[in-house]
Amino acid sequence: MILDKSLLDQHNSQGNALHQKKYGLLASVLQDEGHNVNTILERLAAFQVAIPSWALGTGGTRFGRFAGGGEPRSLEEKIEDVGLLHALNQSSGAISLHIPWDIPQNPKAIQQLAASFELKFDAVNSNTFQDQENQDYSYKFGSLSHTDKAVRDQAIAHNVEVIRHGVELGSKSLTIWLSDGTDFPGQQNFRRSFARTLDSFEQIYAQLPADWKVFIEYKPYEPHFYSTVVADWGSSLLFCQKLGEKALGLVDLGHHLPNTNIEQIVSRFLMEGKLGGFHFNDSKYGDDDLTVGAMRPYQLFLIFNELVDGMTSSEIKNPELSWMIDASHNIKDPLEDLMQSVEAIMIAYAQALIINRPALEKAQLQNDATLAQEILQNAYRTDVRPLLAEARFKAGAALNPVGFYREQKIRKELIKQRGEKTYSTGL
Ligand code: LRH
Ligand code: MN
Ligand code: MN
Predict the structure, then answer these.
(1) 206, 239, 275, 367: which sits with the fewest CB atoms below 10 Å from its CB?
(2) DSSP class of residue 63?
């Protein structure tokens, strides 16, 4: 579906008076506090979050799935959906593919289609956590860590194939989430599983093009419930350090045990120049994959505090980061949910940008915990949404993306075009 620009302009002119009131007030307060509002707006405009190709349909759970209607039926339609999101917020200028859920049959045409919506391809994701039809060996007992070399070779070949697809699309990174692990104590030897995995990773690493990176994503449990080979940031970092400079850690917010201090993990990765990127989502219990910011917006802000600190510090030498969403939608309209996720990420980023850093550093040096908290929470409790709206307005996006999407009844239109019961590939 191609967006009619004049409808966007109409939406923006209707909302502009109220927006200017809110924005003017915030901008003048920030200016008085010593911030350069234009620089903040530029940073927000430059910030792009990749949309996962597997989150454009209703995911459901293992207990059931309730189709939302009008879901994309092909990779082309997924790209159109991301194009629509990007037109609405100008902050979703990339898509991350999961292979083989989304195999680009005609990569040239796919790339052209994406380019027509000004979309780039972020990391390509491999999948050795499911068996595919016509596959020689099963991954029931693992893939890159498997005891049988033939299974490992098959999983390595798949990753190399994913790199090939990525190269054809102009992607520059591979994300490996390795689900391999065990369900019962004694089932495997931890040390040998690690060694076999390292050997497999090394073979994949050797096939990376010169300007590529590989992201090693960690997760403590699920699908396996006793041990996982790449269970935590320590294991991820260990693999990355052994592999070389193209290997970087990937932090999926849902992949931590309850109450883990994720912001400190982010700081450690940054310190070592080993942070590759994020899978943003939110959760209350585990890997819930809920809308970003729905449960723990303060945690997200604290993560961005570390990121802004790291990105502006001359002591940190970390490659540019990949910002990606990894979410699943059980009951919401996936497009609305993704717009909310992107907004939540941008809010946390904007709030982190307005932290009074010199004052924070001074409070830290003086061990003034009260003042340090005041400084952080002053930024966190500032309603920065007018800044985001202004950045969108300037970029020709919608002042209120979800509002516009509803006003225009876009889902209804997608259902008309695609049908009530469509199923997109993915989770
Ligand atoms: C695993 C995970 C990983 C997969 C995606 C579908 O839980 O986060 O990133 O590739 O979900
Ligand atoms: Mn993930
Ligand atoms: Mn996950």
Answers:
(1) 367
(2) T
What distance in angstroms lies between residue 177's CA and the mean position of ligand 1's atoms? 6
In this structure, which amino acid lies at residue 321? Answer: L
CATH of the domain spanning 49-354, picked from 3.20.20.70, 3.20.20.150, 3.10.560.10, 1.20.120.290: 3.20.20.150
The pLDDT tens digits for 389-403 are 999 999 999 999 999
Distance CA 146, CA 348 (A): 40
Ligand nearest to the CA of 98: 1
Instruction: Determine the average pLDDT of the residues in 174-202.
Output: 98
CB 163 within 8 A of CB 127: no
Q: What is the mean pLDDT of the chain?
A: 96
Whole-model pTM: value is 0.97
User: What are 306-346's pLDDT values in tens digits?
Assistant: 999 998 899 999 999 999 999 988 899 999 999 999 999 99
96, 128, 250, 279, best to mutate for ligand 1 pocket (most atoms within 8 Å of CB): 279
Amino acid found at 56: L
Q: For 386-402, b where at least 16 C-beta lie within 10 A, e where not — what string?
A: bbbbbbbbeeebbbbbb
